[in-house]
Write a structure and sequence with these properties.
heterodimer, A: 369 residues, alpha/beta, Rossmann fold, 9-stranded mixed sheet, 4-stranded antiparallel sheet, 13 strands, globular, disordered N terminus, disordered C terminus, B: 294 residues, mainly alpha, MetI-like fold
């Protein structure tokens, strides 16, 4: 790989580029997303990780164009199966939601309409997107309930949401997401509201569905453990921007961005023993109303330099499919000092045949006030 | 597909049956709502089986026996034309229930639609509709209904129309509030994410979910409709003689007070009990829904 395409590989199912979303508020314009680049390959599980408020959910909603007014997608493209979803009509978009891209949410308990049996809701979604009759839709619904390993699907169909446990409700949601044969499922923290033993079951279920070649998954989580178990590829998000992207092993074994590294160190027992203090990231996420000009992590970054505070770091390709937005690597790339030294500060991972990529868009100059 | 130990459903009882039983169970914990349910039930029965219950016909005149006090022959006495008051009350329950049902149906339909459009679409339609609602609320509804009936001409049908057109405002307010709360809920967002359009979300998901407070309001509204239509009849603006309408019976009996006390007391009691029944029942239903939520 000698040159770097600003857009992710052509064969990907979903490619998000330069996505920017703004929310006008009384305090000023919140730049919830800024130049987000993301791609999901067919049949892959792609993780999106970041702390609360960094824009993970906004990214998911933007892909389906579910951003509520006054929020607005101001720039970018979302290429899905060759079409730019940001440039098709609302009617066409409706036929993509649920049919081609489906979504499951954080709180299964409130994800189902409480006044109807789950079977009716499944059937409605199926009939919305296919020409299936009532009976046909029912049998399709039962089949998708079987695919999510719910026992006695016919009796589950007759139950109201409150008669099911949280784990079962999430299974029903997954069944609904599967029911119309979507090729991409966006899972927004699908296990956060569930207890630990159920979490693993749901994750295994999602993994099984993907392995059976039925769909790709964009998995959003703040839990590095979940992302680490599940994903083929990981995107790390911080304050509305993707700061590091790479295959799972590359990101977990050789985190490049100091934020990723800090996230990994914050997993209890991952890096240190049980008698040691847990490493935490000091400070909080910056306000997105007037985000810092430079790297948004700079104020919390132990290795930040003058440069980091002034200039936003460009997207740098470290290795095949492993990108990072960090000045620490830029110098090395520019000077050609690609020497491998896994212990050097901030460079536990070093690029082999990396190249500076010029893909990051210049920051947009419009200001809130 | 990963092999997993299946989770068994929580209960295997048929769910609708169980829900009804649960509602009864909650109602039972509040004695007043049981009283309400019984009062409404009694009136419903008397309306349904009026010819079996009433010893005389509602229009059966017997001048020889006019203005008789309560006795074994006429348990609520007779009126100025010798008609049996108890029988007229029993037949009159049909009129009261008809008024209640019709007013609730008309005002409920208008109010639900106005509130739904207002709450769901927001913005300019919301502003216009809510200012109209405020206008209606600013004028006492009884006065407004009187004006409407006076304009349309006094009759039972016009009373129903007038009350229906005047009383939708409460439904609109309740509906709008419920929708504002629901609109941002997860399952509505999911519905959108699954590709449902606005109309589908509004009619198939939002409105059915708002029915709880609407049912409560309808029960209260039914009571008030009976009270108000009796009031209008009393003023000569509602049902016209010789209909056995309770308010009208009181209006006629007024001239014979206080000597012929039974003439107005029994129709008055009938109004009191039915109105109280609907309101207590409404309270009870609200309790059921509130428990359901928590």
């Amino acid at each position: 790989m000698t040159t770097v395409d600003p857009c992710p590989p052509q064969d990907s199912l979903l490619a998000v580029a330069r996505l920017a979303v703004h929310f006008p508020t009384y305090q000023g314009l919140v730049r919830a997303l800024d130049a987000v680049e993301l791609s999901v390959g067919e049949g892959a599980i792609v993780g999106l990780i970041g702390e609360t408020g960094c824009g993970k959910t906004v990214t998911a909603y933007s892909i389906l164009r579910l951003i509520r007014s006054p929020g607005r997608i101001v720039e970018g493209e979302v290429i899905f199966e060759g079409k730019d979803l940001l440039r098709i009509s609302e009617g066409k978009m409706r036929s993509i939601r649920g049919k081609r891209i489906s979504m499951i949410f954080q709180r299964p308990v409130s994800s189902l309409n409480p006044v109807f049996p789950v079977g009716k809701q499944l059937r409605d979604v199926i009939r919305l997107h296919t020409k299936a009759g009532k009976k046909e839709a029912d049998s399709l619904a039962i089949r998708s309930l079987e695919r999510v390993v719910l026992p006695e699907p016919a009796s589950v169909m007759r139950k109201f949401p409150h008669e099911l446990s949280g784990g079962m409700q999430q299974r029903v949601m997954i069944a609904m997401a599967l029911s119309c044969g979507a090729s991409l499922m966006i899972a927004d923290e699908p296990t956060t509201a569930l207890d630990v033993s159920i979490q693993l079951q749901i994750l295994k279920l999602i993994r099984g569905i993907v392995d059976a070649g039925q769909m790709a998954v964009l998995l959003i989580s703040h839990d590095m453990a979940v992302i680490g178990i599940m994903c083929d590829q990981i995107n790390v998000m911080y304050a509305g921007r993707i700061v590091e992207t790479g295959m799972k092993d590359a990101v977990i074994d050789h985190p490049a961005h100091p934020y990723t590294e800090a996230l990994l160190q914050a997993i209890p027992g991952a890096v240190h023993g049980r008698d040691q203090r847990l490493q935490v990231i000091s400070g909080t996420i910056p306000s997105l109303i007037n985000p810092p000009d430079g790297c948004r992590f700079a104020p919390r970054c132990p290795r930040a330099s003058e440069n980091c505070i002034r200039i936003y770091p460009p997207r740098i390709l470290l290795e095949r499919d492993h990108y990072v937005n960090c000045h620490l690597y830029q110098e090395e790339v520019e000077t050609g000092a690609f020497a491998q030294s896994s212990e050097s500060p901030g460079a536990r991972y070093l690029p082999g045949k990396g190249l500076l990529t010029l893909t990051t868009k210049k920051r947009r100059g419009t200001d809130a006030k | 597909m990963p092999a997993m130990r299946p989770l068994s459903p929580r209960s295997s009882a048929p769910s609708t049956h169980w829900r009804f039983g649960y509602a009864l169970h909650v109602l039972r914990t509040s004695p007043l709502s049981i009283v309400g349910l019984m009062l409404v039930g009694i009136v419903l029965c008397s309306a349904a089986f009026a010819p079996l219950i009433a010893p005389y016909g509602p229009y059966q005149v017997n001048i020889q026996e006019r203005l008789q006090p309560p006795s074994l022959k006429h348990i609520a006495g007779t009126d100025d034309l010798g008609r049996d008051i108890f029988s007229r009350i029993v037949y009159g329950s049909r009129i009261s229930l008809l008024v209640a049902a019709a007013v609730v149906a008309i005002s409920g339909t208008i109010g639900i639609l106005v509130g739904a459009v207002s709450g769901y679409f927001g913005g300019i339609p919301d502003m216009i509709l809510m200012r109209i609602t405020d206008g209606f609320l600013a004028i006492p509804s009884f006065i407004l209904a009187m004006v409407a009936v006076a304009a349309l001409g006094p009759s039972l049908l016009n009373t129903i129309l007038a009350l229906g057109v005047v009383w939708w405002t409460w439904y609109a307010r309740i509906m709008r509030g419920a929708i504002l709360k629901l609109k941002t809920s997860d399952f509505i967002l999911i519905e959108r994410a699954m590709g449902a359009g606005r109309a589908r979300i509004l009619f198939r998901h939002i409105i059915p979910n708002c029915m709880g407070p609407i049912v409560v309001q309808s029960s209260m509204q039914a009571g008030l409709a009976i009270l108000t239509s009796a009031g209008l009849s009393f003023l000569g603006l509602g049902a016209q003689a010789p209909l056995p309408e309770w308010g009208l019976m009181i209006a006629t009996g007024r001239a014979y007070m206080p000597a012929r006390w039974w003439f107005i007391t029994f129709p008055g009691l009938a109004i009191l009990l039915l109105v109280a029944g609907f309101i207590l029942l409404g309270d009870g239903i609200r309790d059921v829904f509130e428990r359901e939520v928590s």
